[in-house]
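Bench log, entry 3. Co-assembly request; chain sequences pasted below exactly as received.
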Amino acid sequence: MATTVTTDTRERVRGKDTGLGLGGPRAGGNGSRRNPGGDDGGDGSRYDGVPQRYRIGMWLAVGSIAMLFTALTSAYVMRAGGSGWDDIQLPGLLWVSTALIVTSSVTIELARRALRRDEYATYRHWLTVSLLLGFGFLAAQVCAWRQLAAQGIYLASNPHSSFFYLLTGLHALHLLGGILGLSFLLWRATRAMRDVSKQTALKRRAAADAVGIYWHFMDGLWVYLFALLFFWR
Amino acid sequence: MAEEVPIPDPHEPAGHGAVHHHSPPTSFIRKYIFSVDHKVIGIQYLLLALVSVFIGMVMSVLMRMNLTWPAHHWPLLAKIFPLGAPEGVMTPEFYLSLVTMHGTMMVFFVLTTAPQGGFGNYFLPIQIGAEDMAFPVLNMLSFWVTFVGLVVLIAAIFVESSAALGATKFVTKYLDGGGTGTVGPIGGWTGYPTLSALGKSAGPGQGAGVTLWITSIAIFCVASLLGALNFITTLLNMRTRGMSLMRMPLTCWSWFTTAILALLSFPVLLAGGILLLLDRHAGTSFFIPGNLVVSDKLVTEHSGGSPILWQHLFWFFGHPEVYIAILPGMGATSHILSTFARKPIFGYRAMVFAMFAIGLLGFFVWGHHMFLSGMSPYSGMAFSVLTLTIGVPSAIKTFNWLGTLWGGRIRFTVPMLFAIGFVSLFVAGGITGLVLGQTSLDLSMHDTYFVLGHFHLVMGVAAIFGMFAGVYFWFPKMFGRMMNDKLGYIHFWPTFIGVYTIFIPMHVMGLVGMPRRYASFAEYTFLNKTHPLVMLVTIAVIITAFTQIIFFFNFFWSLFKGKPAGDNPWEATTLEWATTSPPPFDNFAGKVPTVYRGAYEFAVPDAPEDYVMQTTPDVTVANVPAGVPGQGGGSTGNGHNGHH
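Structure output for the full assembly:
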């Protein structure tokens, strides 16, 4: 019954649109140059838009996090080499964590591809691998901090170590958000895969895309931070 | 509206109505406290701002009292603040903490929350024909995080002003100790290090007050980011059929620009806040230089930091923040001027581009707050030139406002008066921006009352006038009743004259050389001659402050006793007037509005009325309400509800 009403309304709207596309006298002139009443405002945004907004929202979140680290970078650059600056030897373990997070970016991409082909078992498989790699990265970071602390290098020891702990710590904190996102995907993937309607599939893909965007960003951010701490001193 | 049966959304596939169609909640808590409805959240933001503006205003009155009668005994004050005002006379520290809290309250919790979080939340989704924000739960979260930020800031008042609270174990252990007889931190709303980075050893108000202040600001940053993300996504993704970008009301453009500014500038302040907290509590030296002597003691735990770094981070946020405060007011003013001049807005596209130009340039001028920080004269000149460039888009906007008014059949309603007041204040305050933007002049004006007068006019009071215009304009839509006109006029005129009487003399005081942030000028003989002006300003402050009681009364009286408003009392064109007042839970009662034209089609030839609503398909027939396209001549009479 609902379907009947739906079609009916849609036809009424469309019918009137075309009738109007020819345009009555229009004044004011501050509007669009396009046809009045056309579908340019995003036809069907009401439901097609739901998946899309996850991606938009995630890109914006990524943008603001990038600004946070840009600000900290400029602080770093301004402070680097100043008085009291004492280079610390970065733990070699960081290479391991770098390898882990770069690999996880690959596996999460494999997961997304599997989802696009509707291969749910493979999707779950690669999600799990990515999650484990994420935990591995965090573990490596914690070990690196402990190594430094064992050498007597703490947050307040000197400016380079302050920035090291601050940047890696903030990155790890943000990565925890990514791990939450991955866990959410995995939880949904084990629970609700039986629902195979188009709408659910679109939303599922959008959610995976959003987490994917975030995860790749965390990966890129780490590589950037590592390079900054390693080379700029 | 409750009995109306909602028509299914034509674009909602059968069986998936739950995608976004949340049903209205029934319990009190879900409906009014932890609501995900953008309209309720908008009103929550407005109420939060109302509380904050009240606190901030009381503080400004207290400051004026101390400046005018520095030695007078106020018995009531001694009762409330036995530490800060022994025998009723304020200590200088008490005065400085008032300055800090007044600024912080007003800038963050009034000027940033009300125009964007309040009106933006309520009207952005309706004006683009959406049923809610893109992420309703995130929206709720952003309000409640803001609320926590305000609570933390208010906690600073109690912790610092009360000896008992300041000496509790929690405060001394985790917040660096309080109870120093101030009403929060001392440091201004800019919280410059090194003072703010050293902790309680730096003097009264530098312990728990500053810790709580930074925490509050950091929390506020997060809340603003959540809000900004939501605004941008909503605007990009949720516009209804026919609502192309260039058909949006200018209010939507202003909220959009503001959200972009917030998204890019608040993270920078957050970064600064984190560094400052680490300096205070983790022993780092980001902002604290070596060889620093504070309170006759050499600081040995820190060295090598740069207090200028904070200034850069702070003002990289701080200058866009000025536009975050004023842009929504510009949007509302454009919207209201066009509606009551009964003319299309003059130069719609130019208005949009000017707004973006102001936003963009706003990111490259932060250095003009730091001309005296010892920066290179070359960068000083670059910042100066860029600052003066902002005058161009600002002038475009002003000319377009005047062009809109020119030859219009103006209806001098209360919102129209406040919108015209906005233009007036924006020009009066903006002109002196051109003075202060030049390095050579700023050298002598810096940190004087001239600056005080400038920014209060252009970002403080102008933005407040934008809000007043918004309240009087949208009140009928939000609550279904009109505010009282007569009381509105009685509110407008003393306020308008009052704010000029307060802030114009401040420019003169500044030229004479009166410095900012001094608790008393009694010992400065060269300022003796300004005393009549100081007195005049204080009297004007008291009168203007009391005038606001009329507004409060009008607001609450009209909630219950105001004349019923009808759907479109102002005969306006945009989508919020195409639904009921107040709008139903999903804004358009299950219908999807279709937009056929731009936002400001007034005085259209051949139209039966002097305005054509965005939902009207054909200009030659009467206006139709949203979601009922194609009913042509059979208009329901929506929008004819009086007020001619």
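The two ends of chain B are 26 Å apart (CA to CA). Chain B touches chain A through 82 residues (CB under 8 Å).
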